[in-house]
User: Fold this.
Amino acid sequence: NHNCLKMSSAQFPPFHKQTVYAPSDTNQMAPKLPPASLELEYIYGSSRKGCKGDIMKVNNRGHLVYPSAACAIVFDSQRNTQKIYREHTDDVQCIASHPNNQVFATGESGIGDGVIHVWNSNDLRTLATVNTSRWFKSGGVIAMAFSPDGALLAAVGGNPLDSQLLVFDWENGTLVASTRCSNRRTFYLDWNPIDNTIVWLGKGELKFFEVSNGAIRAQQGDLASLGDAQSFYDVVFNPVSGNSYVSTKEGNVYIFKANRMIGKKQLHNGAIYCLASSQDGFVSSGKDGLVKIWKFDMRPGVEFTQNGELNVGYAVDSCIAGPDSVVFTRGYYNNRLERFDPQSGRDELISLGHSAESNRTELWALDTVPNSNLFFSAGDDGRIMLWNKKSRYPVSSRRVPRTQFRGISVTPNGAQVAVSTMSGDVFVYNVQDFTGGEPDEQPNPQTSFRAGTEEIRVMRFSPDGTMLAVGSRNGKIYIYNVQNGYSKVTTLEGHTSCITALDWSTNQTYIQSTSGDSSYELLYWEVASASPVKQVTAMRNVEWFTQTCPLGWTVRGIWDMREYKNGTEINAVGVNFERNLIAYVDNSGDVNLCRYPTLSNNPPRSKFMGHCSRATNVAFSTDGEHLFTCGAEDLSIFQWKIVRNHEPLDEVPQTRQERRQALNESVKQMSDSTKNPQLGRSSVLFRTTAKEYGSKPVNQVSRHTTWRGIDGKFSKGFIGGMYRNNSLNTSQSRNRVLKDTGFSNMDNTL
Assistant:
């Protein structure tokens, strides 16, 4: 029924109290699916919201595997390409590597059902799915570990202060055993390959679990008067003795034989956040900014000796060891990945993004540079980043300390970029100044000014670039003359709450704007007189240079009232330059695609998931090939490839809640632990053979880092890596392999 197509006016969505009018040339054709679909091509940033413990892994092909938002990324740093696993509907907050390093398990938060997916990192096939909500309720999955033979999967989850431990035969869909885990926060979980015990680490406590005959027996870590109860962060195992080396908050490694402490060694000044296995030892990193390399020493009472040290200069929360390099990252809210070559003491940047010191930092500002491969982002971290969508590298990163950016706009000729802040400041830069330079160098603005004292999230240059409209949270729109040094021309006053979007007419005569915070107004303005247009019907045939306002006749169909109830859910709207696609993002993190204009109140659409929280902005590239979206809390930018010339079908035809309900029905019900309580040791699903991991690269050096061997000289003794056959080499279930390959030069061409 398309009666709505015959209407010349409508009051929709229901919370919008104004009437909107159809253009006189409204297309009377029945609504169709959008003439394109989206493929997630690349994620800029590696958000690890909610993650604890060591969350970087490497697969059997030498590719990094790590969580980002509601996805898991398989990253080939040599080619700078990604394969992205996207079956989750909530934050991926833990990851476990199968002993063959080809299969991975990822677990999500408990906002939904706390689903665990087991999948193949080479082809992204899902091998098994476990819905843990029956046991973990709303707490989600906190940590996981595969058994030494890969047949079992242990998972800790539920209430962080009253967690449960479950052990699954994941291939057969059987719950083998379960038990209460701890009332302390969980930091890490691993499975000792020698004595077959599960080691749990938490705040002020550690435990050792044995699984046998459908039951789990827990033993408290016995400190034997040798150590103190504190936060325990990570563990590696001696491949011969089976001794557990547990990292602590005070900078020691506690050595355990079974569950009893037999010794300790001071490795760092301050907390040791990560221990990463290598072929003949392990790497440690921590709060003191040092990455240290250790070699196993089987002499009685020695255990291991130091073989080298890297002075990074800031706390390192996660690292991995490869054949000739160490990759590390700083913190769970930092999107910077670096790789060090111990032989030369130099490093290269392999991934960069917006970062934060806490989960309160957000990313909102996003815009493309017209007629180029470039686009900008700016965030609460004070960073303004210029990206190249073709090379998928950052062209530059600039940082203004103690500044939170919320809005950004590029001039139509691509020469200048304006960036706005939470406090009402606007900085204007030359785009050319963002080429070259050091990362996080402070930029020099061409000019700056203040537009009120409140947050500015919305700015838009006029079509000819001679004026800039700035929308403030105070409900005012300020107009500035670009050619006269950004002097203020006038102020548009009339909205009753914060400005959420604005657009110029193609002839620059009018502005349309919307406001939020329960007012949901769509107002039209005559710029010359700085007055609102009262005869709204006169605006029905105005051609708009952009369409970012979420209210109006041509966009009313984006408000699916099954999902959007009060007008606060949609955060940003964008229409492509061909004027046949509209994309919008919402508080669920969904990216939605419709045919533009929307010809009914509920037109066909496609929905795409990946962001783990509110998606805050959207922008089309001018060449029509890509769509960019960003997430508030995941601090990541998604690059979507626009796929045409095929029948566009909904990738996800349901809402997230409908998808979770479908998952509940389709997932094989896990059996109760009282039924068939068998240990169930099935054969390893995949086995790997000896592989060569590439030749030594020509390193692209970004900066020098202090490096010294144990004798104060450059050391050549560190080998690192993994055993040649990992199918049965389960003693290092977290062995790291990293192709020692370089990275192509950044394409800085404008």
Notes: Residues 1-7, 647-653, 666-750 have pLDDT under 50 and may be disordered. The CA atoms of residues 121 and 621 lie 30 Å apart. The first strand starts at residue 9 and ends at 10.
